[in-house]
Amino acid sequence: MTSGPVSTIQAARLDERLTIIYKPVIDTFMNTYANSTATITIKGNNFDAAGQNTMIYINETPATVVQVSDTVLVVTVPSPASGEKVGQISITTDAGKTTAAQELVLGNKPNANLSRSITVYPNPTLGRIKIDFSQAAVNVEEVEVLNSLGQKIVSCRVAKPASREELDLSEHGVGLYAIRLKTGRGIVTKKIIVR
Prior knowledge:
The chain has one helix at residues 112-116, and strands at 25-29, 33-34, 39-45, 55-58, 61-68, 72-76, 86-87, 89-93, 96-99, 104-106, 119-121, 128-132, 140-146, 152-157, 164-168, 175-183, 186-194. It is mostly beta strands. The protein has two domains: 25-106, Immunoglobulins (Immunoglobulin-like); 112-194, Immunoglobulin-like, CATH 2.60.40.
């Protein structure tokens, strides 16, 4: 048993409510192609509806918030640094930072003729695909494959001069994939189904 003076602590009453804030979540964004000063719409959850503590960055460059709610952000794309062709979107609030799985393509959307001049076949496929860009009046520099979550699962540089590329996606499982071709005139994206 302990002896000595006894102190009494009076309980304080807390009348303020506890507010729990959650880390922002990016579900999708519209306009996968954007020039600087263009606006893009980002959809998700846990954005700061007051907009006071929400910061949006594209490749670590702050973007201007045009409109904000808890589930939608509209921002103006900042000017890219020299040579940047894609932008990683990230959102920071008091609860933390999150980064989009999909990248924003900085620049003009390639024209429809360029997209039509590149073919990916067979579609659907069991895994092996051929990409034919022999009819495109531009060099394809790089081929990337993204899964349905927007994660890059394959990336390869194209040897010059080349007019075709072959890939085997069978080890990545069934699903919908995006084939992204980086060219001197922009990025062309094709969809393919692996069964």
